[in-house]
């Protein structure tokens, strides 16, 4: 009896730790997959108990017009995601990213390196030309950023300079891209202005 009084707390602590440990060992991709599995099982439960409501939400999601305002579409995606339905855009990820600070503050170099590493790995797996695919990415990204540069909406243009600098750092980090290639599709004057704006902001915030 006395032995059990000493052993039981250690046993309970070990049992509790054994339940938590597998979750801690999940990697980033595993967490995404684990979340997808939970959502699919949750959808099965809802479909069994409230099939009419689930089918209504699914029908609503599947018939969103492409020209629908993004804010309205995100409301539909949030409703669909809450019911366990897979969405084209992950609303939880959108919220998480939008709550982050500007990239140039402390982590833009990590993003640039991550994008290059992930791109190289994926193109290697799918046996594509890494250099050609990254050139296509650079051209498309530059075109999209130039369109953003013409926008006047504050929500759309928020942290625009940070994204300009991210594009510059992606090229600097990449062994497959060159600054000459970047300058051929994205005006260097925009990068220079972006660096100036970021420096001015850092000076203002530190004063």
Topology (elements, then pairings):
Blueprint: H1 2-24, H2 28-49, H3 51-62, H4 70-82, H5 91-98, H6 103-106, H7 108-125, H8 130-148, H9 154-157, H10 160-173, H11 179-185, H12 188-206
Helix pairs in contact: 2-3, 3-4, 7-10, 8-10, 10-12
Distance between the termini: 67 Å
Beta fraction = under 5%
Compute the number of helices: 12
Would you tell me the structural class of the helices and strands? mainly alpha
Overall outline: globular
Please compute the radius of gyration using only Cα atoms. 24 Å
Mean pLDDT: 76
Helix content: over 70%
The major beta sheet can be summarized as: none
Total beta strand runs = 0
H-E order: HHHHHHHHHHHH
> How many domains, as an integer?
2
Low-confidence stretches: 1-12, 15-20
Subcellular location: Cell projection, Lamellipodium membrane
Protein name: Nck-associated protein 1
Membrane topology: Single-pass membrane protein
Keywords: Cell membrane, Cell projection, Membrane, Transmembrane, Transmembrane helix
